[in-house]
Amino acid sequence: MALDVDALYRKYGPMVIRRCRALLVDEEQALDAAQETFVKLIRYQHRLTDAAPSSMLYTMATNVCLNMMRSARRRPLNAGEQVLEHIASVDDVEGRALDRTVLDGVFRRERASTKTMAVMHYVDGMTLEEVASHVGLSVSGVRKRLRQLKERSRAWEEA
Amino acid sequence: MPEKQKISDLTLEQFHLGELGAAQERRVREELERDEELRGRLARIVRSDEQIRADYPAERVVPLLRERALRGESASDSRAADRRPWRIPTLAWAIPVAAMALALLSLPIFLRPSDETRLKGAAPHLLVFRKTPTGAEELPPGAVAKKGDVLQLSYVAGEAKYGVIFSVDGRGTLTWHVPSGYRGGAFPAPALDPKGPALLPNAYELDDAPSFERFFLVYSSKPFQVADVERVARALARKAASAQSGTQGAAQAGTQAGAQAGALSLPRGLGQFSLLVKKQG
User: Fold this and answer.
1) Going edge to edge, which strands form the sheet with B143-145?
2) Which of A8, A69, A158, B270 has the fewest CB atoms within 10 Å, counting from its CB?
3) A18 and B CB contact within 8 Å
4) Which domains occur in chain A, in start order?
5) How far apart are CA B189 and CA A26, in angstroms?
């Protein structure tokens, strides 16, 4: 599927930048993350099969921000950020291969990052139904993945 | 966890983008009618759209995103200079001696264009600086340089909006500086920084290629494809290589003169500027 990056940026660039600003707060980091989101879009365009660019880009931007938070390991500024930081720092198997696997998932609508779903649900306040709709999974699938993430999180805290 | 919003940010974004299904759109409309806070959120999105489009317009950002994708970089290995396209409308590119750039970039001479530069006014052109022990000097056309000299390129866009920069040396090697790493194929010429002179973030160390190094800026006020210039650039590089390997004689001298001074046969609508640096020894 050919990708009109120019048209996608014009239409969705502001949304992606806003999303990154909301998660990362720091303006420079947010712009970096937004840039990275579109660079990944260009790089993976040959795999693009998604017919819902806004959901896809929003999910990708969330994922990129989580990766940046994880690598920066910065100190959270407030309680909301603490939740975000906690989700970002959970060391799951999926997380270690996040860049490759999650992007494949986003583009193929097979699997979205559990951590991204967690942000949508716990930080953004989306219902399970909304998360499921945006990432292309069933509600029970999202619930199961979030439960598994919580279990991994508990194990990580107790370790 | 924050208080749950009836309408999530993504749903509101999708409403704003006109991408919701009929049922969801109706739901958001109904909420908007009764929820003042939701109307405020939507108004902030509209205002933010305008601001972001003004600060980071597609004409400037998209070519740079493509260039970064071409170079295979990720945010984790990007440096400040690579992030600059979001804040300052300048080109991001990489050339062989990145480490040399920092010293040159900090030199005040780059903020003081020469008399010649001022005389050129708004015409698009290149500037070449050479690092010296105490600073940097601007090289006039035809200046002599040698292997190991560190050069820093800069350009003045003038009325041009899009451009590419490349060089051809006396051995016939074609080097793409803008877009950096270009290897052929469909690729739009990057947007130029309208405020000049615009420094490129990295310097360039001359190798042992003989005879000359010629730098080109090809520009236009309208978008164009790098491939349109590449064909012509390759022809010039072949000419330079042929002059270098040929036997001494009038024909060979003519070929070499053409490679050093001849104009490129560019497609209509494209302008050009070149600057020759002669090689010592």
Assistant:
1) B143-145, B271-279, B212-220, B162-169, B174-178
2) A158
3) yes
4) 5-158 (1.20.140)
5) 31
Strands B162-169 and B174-178: antiparallel
pLDDT the model gives residue A95: 39
CB-nearest to A32 from B4, B69, B75 is B75
Query: Least CA distance to B63: which residue of chain A?
Result: A6
pTM comes to 0.49
**A42 — contact with chain B (CB < 8 Å)?**
yes
Single-letter amino acid, residue B263: A
Which of A40, A54, A123, A131 to mutate to test binding with chain B, by most B CBs within 10 Å of its CB?
A54
A10 at the B interface (CB within 8 A)? yes
Name the DSSP letter for residue B238: H
- Predicted ipTM? 0.70
B80 vs A126: CA distance, rounded Å: 35
By C-alpha distance, which of B199, B193, B191 is closest to B164?
B191
Which amino acid is it at B188? P
Of B10, B48, B76, the CB nearest to A71: B76
How high does pLDDT run on average in chain A?
Answer: 72
Helix B36-55 to helix B9-17 angle (10° resolution) is: 70
Measured CA to CA, the distance from residue A154 to residue A105 in angstroms comes to 25
